[in-house]
Design brief:
Layout (H helix, E strand, L loop, with lengths): L10 E4 L7 H14 L8 E6 L4 H15 L3 E7 L2 H10 L4 E5 L8 E7 L8 H11 L16 E3 L3 H10 L12 E5 L8 H8 L3 E5 L18 H10 L3 E5 L6 E4 L5 E2 L1 H15 L6 E5 L4 H9 L3 E5 L3 H11 L3 E3 L5 E3 L8 H15 L3 H4 L8 E7 L9 H14 L3 E7 L5 E8 L2 H18 L1
Parallel strand pairs: 2-3, 2-4, 3-6, 7-8, 7-9, 12-13, 12-14
Antiparallel strand pairs: 1-5, 4-5, 9-10, 10-11, 14-15, 16-18, 17-18
Helix pairs in contact: 1-2, 1-4, 5-6, 13-14
Length: 447
């Protein structure tokens, strides 16, 4: 049976839409709180959020649910998703919660859950929580002294800032670097500027004035034009763009050009290999990462383990096979020596450290390979299953044969909307355009 509430990354949707309501949030709090009660100690949960107006509503509803079943709640306020994961471990909490819809517009929101060790929940645990949510929990509610209470944790921000800074070598100093930081008017608008300033960077910040409605609006990693323009205006050395919950980062070089997650991972892989710090004999990335990255890693004697799209799949493979560097082209960078999820600030600090040590420009350091021409097109469909259509399958097979061993073809359904994503890459840019165009046209005919 399919899941009713949870998707690929927690629960997400339009705040006060058909699914994500205060009533649902309270049920999540009660059901999850009951699922993670073990032993007789006073159980606790930490709750962080980004800057969406609806975060207040969901935070209050979740708090009601958790306290109703006897958990004490520690409210962190606006805090990056990776900070919630870290603080769940640091505070010995039984559960962590992040209220965020990441890079989505402000009117969406979501609920992400973390285990006591800071990792996201498995599908099986999410299914158990859903079963509880659909049952009558009234007999299991606490009364009297058993009801939990809520606290506002005023020290959480400082804890995370110091933690992020300690991921750098001792006495690390970023002085002399002109940095433009775009906080996306999101969860990191306080912690990220503070960390960079305390490390000595000459800092210029944008996207640091959230009003509840402007998160990700023309700023952040999904709109890198804003930070690119500011880098050129101020003649900065580097631009750093986070997303709404700061688990993703995009880098802008001194010329205003975007450095994607593939180039980022290439830099970290080479740097950590030279230090003897890289584990697993390579890195983990998704099926969307560029073939140029794979060829570059091969030249270093390293491998590339590919996974389905989604940072959770990257992390699962890293843990199962002993890798400590992984991520996505979109900017989710997972460095498991330090974090249990993508952490935009920590990843950016590692790159700044390499930049400071090497002494070159970002455009030089972050151009480790020539990307193979890659084209991604999305096709929206209204009904049926286009990828099971006989004609579509024939066109796809013919396209794979045309590409041969010199390219790749990735066709997948979106996990969040009725869209089929068609990605092709090969050294011959014209061939890529031709095969992607033929496949998308075939899909449109039956969509």
């Amino acid at each position: 049976m399919g899941r009713q509430y949870f998707g690929t990354d927690g629960i997400r949707g339009l705040a006060n839409g058909r699914k994500l309501t205060p009533e649902l949030a309270m049920k999540v709090g009660m059901a999850t709180g009951l699922s993670f009660q073990r032993g007789t100690h006073r159980h606790r949960v930490v709750i962080g959020k980004d800057t969406r107006r609806s975060g207040y509503m969901l935070e209050t509803a979740l708090t009601a649910g958790f306290t109703a079943v006897g958990l004490d709640v520690f409210l962190l306020g606006p805090m990056p998703t990776p900070a919630v994961a870290m603080l769940t471990r640091s505070l010995r909490a039984d559960l962590g919660v992040m209220i965020s819809a990441s890079h989505n517009p402000f009117d969406d929101n979501g609920i992400k859950l973390f285990r006591p060790d800071g990792y996201k929940l498995s599908d099986d645990v999410e299914m158990q929580i859903e079963e509880l949510m659909n049952s009558d929990l009234t007999p299991r509610l606490q009364q009297g002294r058993g009801i939990g209470r809520a606290y506002r944790d005023e020290e959480a921000r400082t804890r995370y800032i110091e933690y992020a800074k300690r991921t750098l070598p001792r006495n690390a100093d970023l002085s002399g670097l002109r940095v433009v930081l775009d906080c996306a008017n999101g969860a990191a608008y306080k912690v990220a500027p503070t960390a960079l300033w305390e490390l000595g960077a000459e800092l210029f910040t944008i996207g640091d004035e959230p009003d509840g409605f402007n998160i990700n609006h023309k700023v952040g990693s999904t709109a890198p034009q804003a930070v690119a323009a500011k880098v050129l205006e101020l003649r900065a050395d580097i631009g750093i763009a986070l997303d709404g919950d700061a688990d993703r980062v995009i880098i802008i070089d001194e010329k205003g050009h975007v450095v994607d997650g593939d180039q980022f991972m290439a830099v970290i892989a080479q740097s950590w290999l030279a230090r003897g710090q890289l584990q697993g004999g390579g890195i983990v990335a998704t099926i969307m990462s560029n073939l140029g990255l794979e060829r570059y890693l091969t030249s270093l004697g390293l491998g590339l383990e590919r996974t389905p799209v989604g940072d959770r799949y990257v992390l699962e493979t890293m843990r199962a096979k002993g890798f400590n560097v992984g991520g996505e082209q979109s900017g989710h960078i997972i460095l498991s020596d330090f974090t249990t999820t993508g952490d935009g600030l920590v990843a950016a600090l590692q790159l700044l450290s390499v930049l400071k040590e090497a002494g070159g420009t970002v455009s030089e350091i972050c151009s480790r390979f020539q990307p193979v021409p890659q084209l991604l097109q999305n096709v929206r469909y209204d009904h049926g299953k286009p990828l099971e259509d006989k004609h579509v399958l024939e066109v796809v097979e013919a396209s794979r044969m045309r590409l041969g061993n010199s390219g790749r073809l990735v066709i997948r359904e979106s996990g969040t909307e009725p869209v089929i994503r068609v990605m092709g890459e090969a050294d011959d840019e014209g061939l890529v355009a031709a095969v992607v165009g033929e496949i998308t046209e075939a899909i449109r005919q039956v969509a």
